[in-house]
Write a structure and sequence with these properties.
Helix content is 74%, strand content 0%. By secondary structure, the protein is mainly alpha-helical. It has 2 domains: 59 residues, no CATH class; 47 residues, no CATH class. Helix 1 runs antiparallel to helix 3 and helix 5 crosses helix 8. The relative contact order is 0.11.
Length: 124
């Protein structure tokens, strides 16, 4: 079955993005692609090209994104960096902290608000 994207789907995403401010965070190229897809669907019908649908779905994910989802994603990204890097070897408590939801949320919030890079220093 071929997946298609119709005008009503794109219009609802455009309205949501306008209301929650997600369209302002998009770059001009992505915003232009989305507007062209919206106009194309309005005039000619649903889009069926899989490559174009993939690009539009990527933009749609950014539009649907809420602040809570961005905080969780940023916290998880930092936690993965810490576990895969040398931080977990030097500080064994980090593995326990990463399992706690409150710590991940705090880590993501701190990273988004302060744009801070964490430097781990081991005390002797």
């Amino acid at each position: 079955m071929i997946k298609t994207i119709g005008y009503s789907d794109l219009l609802s995403l455009w309205t949501r993005g306008t209301r929650n401010g997600a369209l302002r965070r998009l770059g001009s190229l992505k915003k232009g692609l989305f507007r062209c897809a919206l106009e194309y669907c309005r005039r000619l019908g649903p889009i069926a090209n899989p490559k174009l649908i993939g690009m539009i779905e990527g933009i749609a994910d950014r539009i649907r994104d809420t602040i809570g989802q961005r905080i969780w994603r940023r916290g998880l990204d930092l936690a993965h960096q810490w576990i895969n890097g040398k931080v977990a070897a030097v500080f064994p408590n980090v593995k326990r902290w990463v399992c706690e939801d409150q710590f991940l949320f705090w880590l993501g919030t701190d990273a988004l608000v302060n744009h801070r890079f964490w430097i781990m220093v081991q005390r002797k």
